[in-house]
């Protein structure tokens, strides 16, 4: 199989690669242990006060 044909075949599968990447990131993020940690660490970010700006 020449390189041009291989590149053509791989280009036709880019939606599959993109969907697999998306599903992988979602599964990694929502895995039970990781989800619990993310909820504990990041769920209060909107409620945190901003640090005061330093005088320039």
Core attributes:
56 residues; mainly alpha; elongated
Summary of the model, kept short:
The chain has 3 helices and no strands. It is an all-alpha fold and 56 residues long. The radius of gyration is 21 Å and the shape is elongated.
Task: Please bin the fraction of helical residues.
Answer: 55-70%
Instruction: Output the helix-strand order.
Output: HHH
Number of strands: 0
Count of alpha/pi helices: 3
Classify the beta-strand content into a percent band. under 5%
Give an overview of the whole structure:
The protein is mostly helical and 56 residues long. The chain has helices spanning 3-12, 14-30, 32-42. The chain is elongated, with a radius of gyration of 21 Å.
How are the SSEs placed, and which strands pair?
Elements: H1 3-12, H2 14-30, H3 32-42
């Amino acid at each position: 199989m020449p390189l041009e044909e291989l590149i053509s075949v791989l280009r036709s599968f880019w939606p599959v690669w993109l969907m697999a990447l998306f599903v992988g990131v979602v599964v990694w993020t929502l895995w039970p242990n990781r989800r619990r940690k993310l909820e504990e660490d990041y769920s209060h970010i909107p409620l945190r006060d901003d640090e005061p700006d330093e005088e320039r």
